[in-house]
Amino acid sequence: MKLLAVCVLVFSVMAQTRADPEPDDGSTDPEEVDLVQRSSCPPGWSPIKNRCFRYVAKPMTWARAERHCVSMGANLASVHDTSEYHQVQSVIKMATYGSGRAWIGGTNAQETSIWFWSDGSPLHYTNWCHNQPDNWRNSQRCMEMNYSGEKCWDDLGCSTRLPSVCAKEV
Q1: What is the pLDDT of residue 36?
Q2: What distance in Å separates the CA atoms of residue 77 and residue 168, rounded to the nearest whole number?
């Protein structure tokens, strides 16, 4: 009988909790937003801001890595600020137990001095290593991250095979 009373009490509290109206002021609980963002990313993808990121360990050329990302409804990752860069580095660290080099979506394949993101977003933030990009021998047209001990960006020949990071909208 006591068990029945406890069950009824628990269920009534749960029903009241679910019946509470949402706040009318339009505010949203940050924990709730974070939970929504996390659940919006497919399994194997990590939420960062309003996008989902995935580390792809298989070394590929930049073009093949981009094509692989597109096959998953994504592009090679664009990075828009320092905080996001560090979060993308964390995705790589979790997958590799280190902070290895990886392709991201920057390219200047159309014109040497004009870099853009493969997802079409504007490239305003940069994290180039010292004296980069240098377009060594006029052959470095794709962007890698986590280069050298500085863990910054470097331009690299697009036929180099590296792991990659994909990103897509939530």
Answers
A1: 45
A2: 8
pTM: 0.75
Cβ atoms of 54 and 45 closer than 8 Å:
yes
Residue type, 55: Y
Map residue 56 onto helix, strand or coil. Answer: strand
Report the alpha-carbon distance of residue 152 to residue 16 in Å, rounded.
52
The neighbour count for residue 38, using CB atoms within 10 Å, is: 13
Handedness of CA 92, 97, 100, 103 (dihedral sign): negative
Enter the DSSP assignment of 138: G
Closest CA to 163 of 52, 61, 70: 61
Write down the pLDDT at residue 134: 86
* Below-70 pLDDT ranges, the chain: 1-39, 98-99, 137
Q: What is the pLDDT of residue 13?
A: 34
d(CA 166, CA 170): 13
3-state helix, strand, coil in the chain (%, to 5): 35, 25, 40
Question: What is the 8-class DSSP label of residue 128?
Answer: B
